[in-house]
Design brief:
- It is a single chain.
- With about 100 residues, this protein is α+β, with helices and mostly antiparallel strands.
- It has one domain: Beta-grasp domain (Ubiquitin-like (UB roll)).
- The protein has three helices and five strands; from the N terminus they run βαβαββαβ.
- It has a five-stranded mixed beta sheet with strand order 2-1-5-3-4, with helices on one face.
- β3 and β4 form a beta hairpin.
């Protein structure tokens, strides 16, 4: 089981109170995790990535094992700790301002 932590507004939209656990087939990648997340929680479609292009929304970031993987290819395998459920994949809302 892969664990996913969502930002507060997406947890509210999906009506979950904490982490989400998903069954994801190997190899575990960001794209496969997001496919499983959107299948389990259809109300999240289009909120994390664009419907057509599948590109990450500008103000969201992905973290795995305390590393920002937002600009890594979404089909690259996630670290073993995330794939095995020991660490979560974190979807975090970025903060903009100046």
């Amino acid at each position: 089981m892969v664990r996913v932590q969502l930002p507060y507004h997406l947890r509210n939209l999906a009506r979950v109170s904490s982490e989400v656990e998903l069954e994801v087939a190997a190899p575990v990648t960001v794209a496969r995790v997001l496919d499983a997340l959107e299948a389990a929680y259809p109300m999240l479609r289009g909120t994390i990535r664009d419907h057509a292009s599948k590109q990450r929304r500008a103000y969201l970031r992905y973290f795995a094992c305390q590393q920002d993987i937002s600009f890594e290819p979404t089909d690259a395998p996630l670290p073993a700790a995330v794939a095995e459920g020991r660490e979560p994949l974190i979807v975090m809302g970025a903060i903009a301002g100046g």
